[in-house]
Please model this.
Amino acid sequence: MGRSPSCDGETGVKKGPWTIEEDKLLVEYIKEKGHGSWRRLPKLAGLNRCGKSCRLRWTNYLRPDIKRGRFTDDEEKLIIHLHSLLGNKWSSIATKLPGRTDNEIKNYWNTHLHKKLLGMGIDPVTHRPRTDLSLLAGLPGLLAVAGNFVDSGAATAAWNMNALKLQVDAAKFQLLQGLVRALTTAAAPAPAPGMDNLRALLAVSTGGIDQNMLLQQCQWNDMNNLPALTSSAPTSGMHNISGMFDGFSASDGLSSTELGCHGGVSGRNGTVDPMVADDQECKNNGGGGVSCEETPASSPFDGLQSLNLIDDLNTDGGWKDLLEQMSWLNSSEL
DNA sequence: AATAGGCCCAACCGCTCTAGT
DNA sequence: TACTAGAGCGGTTGGGCCTAT
Model:
C-alpha cells in the first residue's frame, strides 16, 4: 500500500503560487494532449513542478468548467444539506455542485458556513441544535453570576480565580461524563444527572476534593471503553439531557459527597467526545470511497426542549432568575 | 498613515485507495 | 496474493488582502 512518493522525492521542483506562464503551459498542454499521467506531465509540458501540483492547479483553478464567484443561496443550502448527509466528504459534495471544486467547497464551509451554523445555534458537525456545548460554554458565566449573586460576603471572597477554574474544569468533566452517558443510554431518562453534576461542582468548591480524586472516583478510565455512537443515536439520550435541565429546581437539596458517579460504560475504544463520534465513526470505516451512513439530521429531536430552556436562560436575567430559585447557593456548602 | 488582527483561499502535506503487474 | 505506482482525498498552512484602531 505504501505512501505515494508524490513530490517528496523530487528535488528542485518549484513550489508556491503559479505564474501566468506556468498556467499557460499547463492549459495548452492539457488542451492539446490531455493530462494523461500526472506524474509524467510536468516534464512533457516543460514545467518545473511535480505532477501532484499540476493536477491540483488544473482541477482547482484552471479547468474550463469551473464556476467562479460567490456561492448562491441555493448552493449554500445544498452544501449544508449534503454535509448533513455526507459529512466532510468534500469530493462527494462537489459532484452535486457543477462547476465547484471540493477545495472551494471545503474552504467555503470552513470560512462561512461553519460559523453561520454556529451562529444559528446548530452544531456544524452533527447538524443538530447545540445543547451540551452551549451549556459548557455558559459555565464560567454561570459561576461568575453565582459569585456576584451570593452577596458580597465570605462565599464570594472565597471564590478566587483558581477556585473558579477548578470548579469549571470539574464541572465540565462531570457534564461531559453525564452527556456521554446520556447519549449512550437508550433506556429511560437517567435521574436528573444535571443535579449530580452540580453537586460535584459544589463539592469541589469546598476545596476538599481535587480533580484527580474526582477522576478516580468516577472511573474516568472506563470512559475509554465507550460504546459506539452510531448515527442512530437514541433520541431518548437527548431526552436525558433535557432531564438535566429539568433537574434544576429550587427544591433540590445538595450533598457535598454525592458525586453522581455511575462508573464507565463498556464497548468502544477511542474518542470520548460524543460530538465528534459520528465523524470518527466515518473515519474509522476507512477513508476515501467509503460512504457514511446518513445522520438523522431531520429526525425528531427531543433535545429542542433543552435548547429552548437554554435560550430562555440566556435572555436578560435568565440565569439570575434561575439562581435566585436555587436557594442552595446560599447554603453553607459554598 | 501605520499597524495589528482577522479573514480568505490557493497550495501543500500526508494519508488511503485503486489498478496494474 | 503481495507489492508498487499513481491518483485522489481531507486537513492544514502561509501569505496576501481587508478592516478596525
Notes: The CA atoms of residues 74 and 80 of chain A lie 10 Å apart.
